[in-house]
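Fig. S4 source data, part A: sequence.
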Amino acid sequence: MTGLRDVLVEVAEDAREYDVTDRAVRVVRRRQLATRLVPVAAALLVVAGLVAVAVPFGRGAEPESPPGAAGLPGRIVPEQSPPLLPEDRGVGRATLAYLNGDTSAWAVLTADGHQYRVDGLQVQAISADGRWLVTLRTDQTRVLRDLAGTGRQELPPGEGAHFSPDSGKLVVPARSGSATIVDLATAARTTVPLDPAPPNRVCAIRNSGNLVLCQAPGSPFNGLRLADGATGHIARDIADLGLPRGETVPAESGSVTLGPDDRTVYLTATQGEHRSLVGYDLGEGRLTVRYPLPDKGPAAERPGANGGVEYGPPDERYLLGIDADGPLLLHLAPSRSDPFSVGTAAIEVIARDTGALTTVTLLARPIRLAVYPG
């Protein structure tokens, strides 16, 4: 789920939505104010782990991928004036949502290739099967929409939204120390109280309805806790992920992402300047996945106003989601012809067996933020 989420998306910041999208927006805003540049960057980070694969990414030119990789086309170009997402009929499965940096409007791309403008401030989540969409509207109302039909319901106020890997449940954490769980098959809702002791922020819901709790954004990582989805009682406390000595999960790395297997949680671990995407298996109780991430590229510099320094957009990658083929990264980079202008963004996949990095989709400017199903 990985920033991007501000001049374009003042959105979740004003709504005080504290998921990874919003954190991304805040990061982008700070960069824009500091550099006085136009690009919007996103921060949908997540990762952490040990074992299995440890193959460095290949370098060189980014290959074009055939259409259909990870369920996405080889290139996405935003439509100038896409129609508003209709409410009187279904539109089919969503494969991606993106923010148009020129219009500050969100759009949904469906499996049949159509693009629809979303009425609201922000797309917050898409279920893994692409059927369900959660949006935040300008009046701060959060809406759950069934894209296969016309069903919709307003959700209680909260901090973000998370779907279970099987797309059967949705959790909306509240600011009051509770969470609302929606059974998507019946539309039934239950409210679960949460232990106030940290880590106490809901960052994932499992197929069973049980919850994964993690640290608040900007707070030092202090482990994970698993909570019963019916009572809120803590079933398991995971204080130590078993990271090697000297490796940490930085506060800015964001929340945990639950993989499609319903048992592996992903986050970013750092050691010095180097980052890795790691996966912790909740069933085995240990780190089972590790993918070294490319180092961030340095931003170009030049003299700015009043004796200051102006920076170009950095070359960075953020976790976008976990696909069946492997983790997906959103790659944001400066233009090759002008290091002070933003270039075309790309979605890349990390091969599960080798760790090789391959471009799946090119995102034409001005797309700088995306939300992937799951």
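Fig. S4 source data, part B ends here. The helical segments are 10-15, 20-35.
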